């Protein structure tokens, strides 16, 4: 609407999409949006995050100031939180998205360049949409699961994303309440446990662990289980999803 209350334009999220052999109807809910000048040209773009009402397709849409769709990315699993961070030092901030990947049943971290958004998340079989090209993620990361979150849910998920004052990225996990901290190039800096994680862990295993022992256990087991998509396959070292496309 303009300042006088007259409607200027309208955007309807989602559309009918086919993933694998299943057709998902055009029934979407907008779960969040933000207004941001991604390309620093003085005119704001609009980020719109939408989910299918009953199933997993998730649309990330970028609109210009007139409501025109200028880019979209489709994800097989809900994306719950987002943030903005200049990951490569080019002066333009990328979009960071956290949520879950339904096929891999893990929490995922997705980094998109606002001026190069298209395609769909890296999937196979029933979770892939043949209508979409391969997604142009700058990074796609799957985070490991623990017995704590497996005890609570079939699918792991990121709960929140925070940009720290040192420009590192802090990711909290839903259900387990673990905290992963990454640098701007998505290299792991640390993994920290919470008292909630300890309480849940000790309840599951009927133990009374020391925080220091449990912290060391987590830091010893989980880093090598973090997976990065390099555009072709999953690897265990920080790699851009564009590695095989540049």
Number of helices: 3
Task: Report the mean per-residue pLDDT as an integer.
Answer: 95
Helical fraction? 10-25%
Order of strands side by side in the largest beta sheet? Answer: 7-8-9-10-15-16
Distance from N terminus to C terminus (CA atoms, Å) equals: 41 Å
Radius of gyration: 19 Å
Largest sheet: 6 strands, antiparallel
Counting DSSP E segments of at least 2 residues, the number of strands comes to 16
Q: How large a portion of the residues is in β-strands, by DSSP E?
A: 35-45%
SSE class: mainly beta
User: Unreliable segments (pLDDT under 50, ≥5 consecutive)?
Assistant: none
Characterize the overall form: globular
- The H/E string reads EEEEEEEEEEHEEEEHHEE
What are the SSEs and their pairings?
Blueprint: E1 17-19, E2 22-24, E3 28-36, E4 45-52, E5 57-63, E6 69-76, E7 79-85, E8 94-101, E9 106-112, E10 139-143, H1 147-152, E11 158-163, E12 169-173, E13 179-182, E14 188-192, H2 195-205, H3 211-221, E15 227-229, E16 234-235
Antiparallel strand pairs: 1-2, 3-4, 4-5, 5-6, 7-8, 8-9, 9-10, 10-15, 11-12, 12-13, 13-14, 15-16
Concise account of the structure shown:
With about 250 residues, the protein is mainly beta. The protein contains three helices and 16 strands.
Question: Which tags fit this structure?
Answer:
mainly beta; single chain; 246 residues; six-stranded antiparallel β-sheet
Structure description:
The protein has 246 residues and is mostly beta strands. Helices cover 11% and strands 37% of the residues. The chain has three helices and 16 strands. The strands form four sheets. The chain has a six-stranded antiparallel sheet with strand order 7-8-9-10-15-16, with no helix packed on it. A four-stranded antiparallel sheet has the order 3-4-5-6, with no helix packed on it. The chain has a four-stranded antiparallel sheet with strand order 11-12-13-14. Strand 5 and strand 6 form a beta hairpin. The chain starts with 16 loop residues before the first strand and ends in an 11-residue tail after the last strand. The model has no long low-confidence stretch (mean pLDDT 95).
């Amino acid at each position: 609407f303009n300042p006088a209350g007259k409607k200027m334009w309208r955007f309807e999220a989602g559309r009918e999409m086919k993933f694998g052999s299943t057709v998902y109807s055009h029934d979407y809910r907008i779960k969040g949006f933000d207004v941001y000048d991604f390309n620093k040209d003085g005119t704001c773009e609009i980020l719109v995050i939408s989910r299918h009402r009953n199933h997993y397709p998730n649309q990330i849409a970028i609109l210009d100031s007139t409501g025109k769709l200028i880019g979209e990315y489709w994800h097989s699993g809900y994306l719950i939180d987002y943030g903005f961070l200049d990951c490569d030092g080019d002066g333009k901030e990328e979009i960071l998205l956290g949520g879950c990947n339904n096929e891999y049943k893990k929490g995922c971290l997705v980094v998109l360049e606002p001026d190069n958004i298209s395609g769909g998340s890296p999937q196979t079989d029933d979770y892939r949409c043949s209508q979409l090209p391969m997604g142009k993620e700058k990074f796609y990361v799957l985070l490991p699961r623990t017995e704590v979150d497996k005890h609570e849910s079939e699918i792991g998920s990121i709960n929140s994303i925070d940009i720290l004052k040192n420009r590192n990225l802090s990711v909290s996990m839903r259900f387990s309440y673990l905290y992963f901290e990454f640098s701007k190039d998505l290299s792991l800096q640390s993994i920290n446990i919470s008292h909630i994680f300890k309480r849940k862990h000790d309840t599951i295993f009927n133990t009374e662990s020391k925080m220091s022992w449990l912290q060391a256990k987590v830091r010893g087991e989980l880093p090598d289980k973090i997976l990065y998509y390099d555009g072709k396959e999953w690897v265990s070292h920080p790699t851009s999803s564009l590695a095989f496309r540049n």
